Amino acid sequence: MAALLVALSIMAIMMTVTMPVWRQLSQREKEEELVFRGLQYARAIGLYERKYANAPPPSIDVLVQQHFLRKKYKDPITNDDFAPITAVQAAAATATQQPGRTGSTPAARPPASSAAAGTSRSTGSQGGVTGVASKSKDTSIRIYNGRTHYNEWTFVYAPPAPTPGSGGGPGTTTPGQRGQPQRGQPQQGGPGGPRPNPGGGAGAPFSNPFRVPPAPGPGR
User: Fold this and answer.
1) Would you state the pLDDT for residue 95?
2) pTM value?
3) Helix (H) or strand (E) holding 3
């Protein structure tokens, strides 16, 4: 009987030690799944915008109905739906976090209040869905993009920046046409082209100074 009590006491101590470790491992697995599912939403939004001329989807359900998203993933932290992030919320967060800055800015990370706001409101009047976020305000184990709370882990689709020099702006030339003269303009000297006149003006015929004059004919 005493041995059984000792064994039970040892087992209780071991459970007390291993429970926090097991809970932490389980939480880390949920965080990995949160990142995977969030990126699936961002990828589906990007595919939708490519098809519809950069117009964001009006809702998450549209992504599933049109097969851009395999299914409506649940938030593994709360076992509930993700909070959609609209274009208006992302723009407001950008203006709040970077005041006075003009030009293109990277994808904004809306704070907790803006990420979860509008979950019960219609997203169609707010510019469409550009990303998702968790509703949980708990502190995370992992630091994701400098954020330590799950509702700050935003997964927003960011369009790729245009490559410099890819467009046909002023001063650019079309490949294969560089150096070709325009119609009506004289060509410059070069291989296979007319050579300049050393002693004449522009457009004067070229005379060879080393040419031998013809022999005089009879009677000259």
Assistant:
1) 62
2) 0.57
3) helix 2-51
Domain boundaries, the chain: 35-97+109-156
End-to-end CA gap in the chain: 149
pLDDT reading at 51 higher than 80: yes
Phi, psi of 13 (to 5 degrees): -65, -45
Residue ranges with strand state E in the chain:
74-75, 80-81, 83-86, 129-133, 139-144, 147-149, 155-156
Residue that wins the pLDDT comparison between 131 and 107: 131
| pLDDT tens column, 152-192 | 999 999 888 777 765 544 444 444 444 444 444 444 444 45
- Please list the alpha-helical segments (H only) found in 52-178: 60-65, 87-97, 112-116
Write b or e for each residue in 65-87: b if 16 or more Cβ atoms lie within 10 A of its Cβ, otherwise e. eeebbeeebebbbbeeebbbbbb
* φ and ψ at residue 92, rounded to 5 degrees: -65, -40
Residue whose pair of structure tokens reads 């915008």 in the numeric block: 49
Q: What is the pLDDT of residues 125-151, one digit of tens each?
A: 457 999 999 999 999 999 999 999 999
Structure tokens at 209: 């100074």
CA–CA separation, 133 vs 151, rounded Å?
6
As a whole number of angstroms, the distance between CA 53 and CA 163 comes to 19
| Cα–Cα nearest to 72, from 156, 63, 135 | 63
